[in-house]
Protein backbone atom coordinates (compact mmCIF):
# COMPACT_ATOMS: atom_id res chain seq x y z
CA UNK A 1 0.00 0.00 0.00
CA UNK A 2 1.23 3.49 -0.83
CA UNK A 3 0.56 5.36 2.41
CA UNK A 4 0.11 8.70 0.63
CA UNK A 5 -2.35 7.36 -1.99
CA UNK A 6 -5.54 9.41 -2.13
CA UNK A 7 -8.80 7.60 -1.47
CA UNK A 8 -12.10 8.99 -2.71
CA UNK A 9 -14.37 6.91 -0.50
CA UNK A 10 -18.10 6.99 -1.31
CA UNK A 11 -20.54 6.32 1.48
CA UNK A 12 -24.20 6.65 0.52
CA UNK A 13 -23.46 8.95 -2.44
CA UNK A 14 -21.16 11.27 -0.47
CA UNK A 15 -17.38 11.40 -0.37
CA UNK A 16 -15.42 10.91 2.85
CA UNK A 17 -13.26 13.94 3.67
CA UNK A 18 -11.07 15.32 6.39
CA UNK A 19 -11.04 19.02 7.12
CA UNK A 20 -7.74 20.87 6.78
CA UNK A 21 -7.89 24.54 7.86
CA UNK A 22 -11.65 24.37 7.29
CA UNK A 23 -11.32 23.05 3.73
CA UNK A 24 -12.31 19.43 2.95
CA UNK A 25 -9.80 17.10 1.28
CA UNK A 26 -9.86 13.37 0.41
CA UNK A 27 -8.42 10.90 2.92
CA UNK A 28 -5.05 9.24 2.43
CA UNK A 29 -4.62 5.48 2.43
CA UNK A 30 -2.79 5.82 5.72
CA UNK A 31 -5.65 7.71 7.35
CA UNK A 32 -8.21 5.29 5.96
CA UNK A 33 -6.56 2.32 7.73
CA UNK A 34 -8.19 3.50 10.96
CA UNK A 35 -11.64 4.09 9.51
CA UNK A 36 -14.23 1.47 10.35
CA UNK A 37 -15.85 1.09 6.93
CA UNK A 38 -16.49 -2.13 5.05
CA UNK A 39 -15.00 -1.65 1.54
CA UNK A 40 -17.25 -3.03 -1.21
CA UNK A 41 -15.33 -1.83 -4.27
CA UNK A 42 -12.01 -0.26 -5.25
CA UNK A 43 -11.09 1.29 -8.61
CA UNK A 44 -7.82 2.82 -9.70
CA UNK A 45 -8.27 6.37 -11.04
CA UNK A 46 -4.73 7.26 -12.08
CA UNK A 47 -2.00 9.44 -10.64
CA UNK A 48 -2.32 13.04 -9.57
CA UNK A 49 0.54 15.12 -8.21
CA UNK A 50 2.61 11.87 -8.30
CA UNK A 51 0.17 10.14 -5.96
CA UNK A 52 -1.97 7.14 -6.81
CA UNK A 53 -5.70 7.84 -6.59
CA UNK A 54 -8.49 5.35 -6.00
CA UNK A 55 -12.26 5.45 -5.84
CA UNK A 56 -13.68 3.24 -3.09
CA UNK A 57 -17.20 2.31 -2.13
CA UNK A 58 -18.09 1.26 1.37
CA UNK A 59 -20.76 0.62 3.93
CA UNK A 60 -20.69 2.62 7.11
CA UNK A 61 -20.76 6.14 8.42
CA UNK A 62 -18.06 8.77 8.81
CA UNK A 63 -16.25 8.32 12.13
CA UNK A 64 -15.30 11.19 14.39
CA UNK A 65 -12.82 13.55 12.75
CA UNK A 66 -14.18 12.77 9.26
CA UNK A 67 -17.21 13.98 7.36
CA UNK A 68 -19.05 12.92 4.22
CA UNK A 69 -19.61 15.70 1.70
CA UNK A 70 -21.93 15.98 -1.28
CA UNK A 71 -20.02 16.50 -4.54
CA UNK A 72 -21.96 19.69 -5.30
CA UNK A 73 -20.90 21.12 -1.95
CA UNK A 74 -17.24 20.83 -3.07
CA UNK A 75 -17.87 23.12 -6.07
CA UNK A 76 -16.02 26.36 -5.55
CA UNK A 77 -14.88 25.29 -2.08
CA UNK A 78 -11.91 23.13 -3.03
CA UNK A 79 -9.24 23.43 -5.69
CA UNK A 80 -10.58 22.48 -9.13
CA UNK A 81 -8.30 19.41 -9.49
CA UNK A 82 -9.84 17.90 -6.38
CA UNK A 83 -13.36 18.61 -7.61
CA UNK A 84 -12.71 17.00 -11.02
CA UNK A 85 -11.00 13.98 -9.44
CA UNK A 86 -13.92 13.51 -7.07
CA UNK A 87 -16.24 13.83 -10.06
CA UNK A 88 -14.23 11.20 -11.93
CA UNK A 89 -14.37 8.91 -8.89
CA UNK A 90 -18.12 9.32 -8.53
CA UNK A 91 -18.79 8.62 -12.20
CA UNK A 92 -16.64 5.48 -12.18
CA UNK A 93 -18.19 4.16 -8.96
CA UNK A 94 -21.72 4.77 -10.22
CA UNK A 95 -20.96 3.30 -13.62
CA UNK A 96 -19.70 0.08 -11.97
CA UNK A 97 -22.76 -0.01 -9.74
CA UNK A 98 -25.06 0.32 -12.75
CA UNK A 99 -23.28 -2.17 -15.04
CA UNK A 100 -23.00 -5.29 -12.92
CA UNK A 101 -25.29 -7.03 -15.39
CA UNK A 102 -25.30 -7.13 -19.16
CA UNK A 103 -27.89 -4.81 -20.70
CA UNK A 104 -28.35 -7.16 -23.66
CA UNK A 105 -28.64 -10.68 -22.16
CA UNK A 106 -28.90 -10.01 -18.42
CA UNK A 107 -25.85 -12.11 -17.54
CA UNK A 108 -23.38 -11.06 -14.85
CA UNK A 109 -20.60 -8.81 -16.17
CA UNK A 110 -16.88 -9.18 -15.45
CA UNK A 111 -14.37 -6.35 -15.30
CA UNK A 112 -12.57 -6.16 -18.67
CA UNK A 113 -9.03 -7.55 -18.51
CA UNK A 114 -7.27 -4.46 -19.88
CA UNK A 115 -9.76 -1.64 -20.54
CA UNK A 116 -11.87 0.40 -18.17
CA UNK A 117 -14.95 -1.54 -19.25
CA UNK A 118 -17.36 -4.24 -18.18
CA UNK A 119 -17.58 -7.36 -20.30
CA UNK A 120 -20.29 -9.99 -20.56
CA UNK A 121 -18.76 -13.49 -20.80
CA UNK A 122 -22.10 -14.88 -21.99
CA UNK A 123 -22.81 -12.75 -25.09
CA UNK A 124 -19.58 -10.77 -25.45
CA UNK A 125 -21.06 -7.28 -25.06
CA UNK A 126 -18.58 -4.73 -23.69
CA UNK A 127 -19.84 -1.64 -21.85
CA UNK A 128 -17.65 1.43 -21.47
CA UNK A 129 -18.21 4.28 -19.01
CA UNK A 130 -20.89 6.53 -20.41
CA UNK A 131 -20.23 10.17 -21.16
CA UNK A 132 -22.90 12.52 -22.44
CA UNK A 133 -21.57 15.28 -24.69
CA UNK A 134 -23.49 18.50 -24.42
CA UNK A 135 -23.11 22.06 -25.62
CA UNK A 136 -23.18 25.31 -23.73
CA UNK A 137 -23.31 28.52 -25.73
CA UNK A 138 -23.19 32.25 -25.17
CA UNK A 139 -25.05 34.04 -27.96
CA UNK A 140 -23.70 37.54 -28.69
CA UNK A 141 -25.19 40.57 -30.40
CA UNK A 142 -22.88 43.61 -30.35
CA UNK A 143 -22.36 44.58 -26.72
CA UNK A 144 -25.13 42.27 -25.55
CA UNK A 145 -25.36 38.59 -24.64
CA UNK A 146 -28.36 36.33 -24.40
CA UNK A 147 -28.88 34.77 -20.98
CA UNK A 148 -31.77 32.67 -19.72
CA UNK A 149 -33.23 31.72 -16.40
CA UNK A 150 -34.21 28.09 -15.89
CA UNK A 151 -37.59 27.55 -14.24
CA UNK A 152 -36.11 24.79 -12.05
CA UNK A 153 -33.36 26.95 -10.52
CA UNK A 154 -34.01 27.99 -6.94
CA UNK A 155 -32.40 31.44 -7.22
CA UNK A 156 -32.95 34.23 -9.73
CA UNK A 157 -29.88 33.29 -11.70
CA UNK A 158 -29.31 33.75 -15.43
CA UNK A 159 -26.96 31.60 -17.48
CA UNK A 160 -25.99 30.56 -20.99
CA UNK A 161 -28.01 28.05 -23.03
CA UNK A 162 -27.12 24.36 -22.83
CA UNK A 163 -28.33 20.99 -24.03
CA UNK A 164 -27.34 17.40 -24.81
CA UNK A 165 -26.14 16.14 -28.16
CA UNK A 166 -28.49 13.67 -29.84
CA UNK A 167 -27.41 10.50 -31.67
CA UNK A 168 -26.30 11.25 -35.23
CA UNK A 169 -25.73 14.94 -34.55
CA UNK A 170 -22.52 16.95 -34.80
CA UNK A 171 -21.68 19.24 -31.92
CA UNK A 172 -22.25 22.26 -34.20
CA UNK A 173 -25.70 20.98 -35.13
CA UNK A 174 -26.47 20.63 -31.42
CA UNK A 175 -25.68 24.33 -30.91
CA UNK A 176 -27.99 25.43 -33.74
CA UNK A 177 -30.80 23.09 -32.66
CA UNK A 178 -30.66 23.90 -28.95
CA UNK A 179 -30.64 27.67 -29.50
CA UNK A 180 -33.55 27.39 -31.94
CA UNK A 181 -35.52 25.10 -29.63
CA UNK A 182 -34.92 27.05 -26.44
CA UNK A 183 -35.22 30.66 -27.61
CA UNK A 184 -36.31 30.52 -31.25
CA UNK A 185 -33.39 32.43 -32.81
CA UNK A 186 -30.73 31.60 -35.39
CA UNK A 187 -26.97 31.83 -34.77
CA UNK A 188 -23.82 31.61 -36.87
CA UNK A 189 -20.03 32.00 -36.61
CA UNK A 190 -19.57 29.39 -33.85
CA UNK A 191 -16.30 29.60 -31.88
CA UNK A 192 -15.21 26.78 -29.58
CA UNK A 193 -13.75 28.15 -26.31
CA UNK A 194 -13.18 25.11 -24.14
CA UNK A 195 -14.74 22.20 -22.29
CA UNK A 196 -15.62 21.10 -18.79
CA UNK A 197 -16.36 17.75 -17.22
CA UNK A 198 -19.63 18.09 -15.32
CA UNK A 199 -20.33 15.03 -13.18
CA UNK A 200 -24.04 15.65 -12.57
CA UNK A 201 -24.32 12.93 -13.70
CA UNK A 202 -21.83 12.38 -16.59
CA UNK A 203 -21.70 15.34 -18.95
CA UNK A 204 -18.86 16.63 -21.03
CA UNK A 205 -19.76 20.24 -21.78
CA UNK A 206 -18.31 21.88 -24.90
CA UNK A 207 -18.42 25.65 -24.65
CA UNK A 208 -19.05 28.05 -27.56
CA UNK A 209 -19.59 31.66 -28.44
CA UNK A 210 -22.00 32.23 -31.33
CA UNK A 211 -23.27 35.36 -33.09
CA UNK A 212 -26.93 36.26 -33.30
CA UNK A 213 -28.11 35.77 -36.88
CA UNK A 214 -31.84 36.50 -36.81
CA UNK A 215 -35.23 35.89 -35.25
CA UNK A 216 -37.09 37.09 -32.17
CA UNK A 217 -36.62 35.58 -28.72
CA UNK A 218 -39.46 33.19 -28.13
CA UNK A 219 -39.65 30.47 -25.52
CA UNK A 220 -42.28 28.03 -24.48
CA UNK A 221 -43.44 27.74 -20.91
CA UNK A 222 -41.54 25.03 -19.15
CA UNK A 223 -37.79 24.76 -19.05
CA UNK A 224 -36.99 28.45 -19.57
CA UNK A 225 -38.71 30.99 -17.35
CA UNK A 226 -37.10 34.07 -18.91
CA UNK A 227 -34.55 34.85 -21.63
CA UNK A 228 -33.28 38.23 -22.73
CA UNK A 229 -30.34 40.33 -23.87
CA UNK A 230 -28.00 41.81 -21.27
CA UNK A 231 -25.42 44.53 -21.88
CA UNK A 232 -21.96 43.36 -20.87
CA UNK A 233 -21.80 46.11 -18.20
CA UNK A 234 -25.15 45.11 -16.66
CA UNK A 235 -24.76 41.50 -15.64
CA UNK A 236 -27.54 39.83 -13.67
CA UNK A 237 -26.85 37.17 -11.04
CA UNK A 238 -24.73 34.58 -12.93
CA UNK A 239 -23.12 31.23 -11.98
CA UNK A 240 -19.89 31.23 -9.95
CA UNK A 241 -16.42 30.90 -11.47
CA UNK A 242 -16.24 27.10 -11.31
CA UNK A 243 -18.86 26.70 -14.03
CA UNK A 244 -18.01 26.88 -17.73
CA UNK A 245 -21.01 29.18 -18.26
CA UNK A 246 -19.18 31.77 -16.19
CA UNK A 247 -15.98 31.38 -18.26
CA UNK A 248 -18.02 32.02 -21.40
CA UNK A 249 -19.63 35.11 -19.85
CA UNK A 250 -16.33 36.46 -18.48
CA UNK A 251 -14.59 35.95 -21.84
CA UNK A 252 -17.27 38.07 -23.53
CA UNK A 253 -17.26 40.80 -20.85
CA UNK A 254 -13.45 41.06 -20.90
CA UNK A 255 -13.34 41.17 -24.68
CA UNK A 256 -15.96 43.93 -24.93
CA UNK A 257 -14.37 45.93 -22.11
CA UNK A 258 -10.97 45.74 -23.81
CA UNK A 259 -12.49 46.78 -27.16
CA UNK A 260 -14.02 49.87 -25.54
CA UNK A 261 -10.62 50.77 -24.08
ZN1 LIG B 1 -24.56 -10.36 -22.31
Describe the model:
The chain is of the alpha+beta class. It has 2 domains: 6-98, Nucleoside Triphosphate Pyrophosphohydrolase, CATH 3.90.79.10; 132-260, Nucleoside Triphosphate Pyrophosphohydrolase, CATH 3.90.79.10. The chain is 22% helix and 39% strand. It contains 5 helices and 15 strands. The strands form 3 sheets. Strands 1, 2, 3, 4, 5 and 6 form a 6-stranded mixed beta sheet that branches. It starts with 5 loop residues before the first strand and ends with a helix. The structure holds zinc ion. Zinc ion (ZN) binds next to loops.
Give the distinct bound molecules.
zinc ion
CATH A-level architecture of the largest domain? Alpha-Beta Complex
Proportion in β-strands: 35-45%
Q: What is the domain total for the residues? A: 2
Give me the CATH superfamily of the largest domain.
Nucleoside Triphosphate Pyrophosphohydrolase
Distance between the amino and carboxyl termini: 57 Å
Low-confidence stretches: none
Q: What radius of gyration results from the CA coordinates?
A: 22 Å
How much helix is in the residues? 10-25%
Q: What is the CATH first-level class name of the largest domain?
A: Alpha Beta
Shape, per Cα inertia axes = globular
The mean pLDDT is 94
Here the CATH topology of the largest domain equals: Nucleoside Triphosphate Pyrophosphohydrolase
Output the number of helix runs: 5
Question: What series of H and E elements makes up the topology?
Answer: EEEHEEEHHEEEEEEHEEEH
Strand count: 15
Q: Decide which structural class fits the backbone.
A: alpha+beta
Largest sheet: 6 strands, mixed
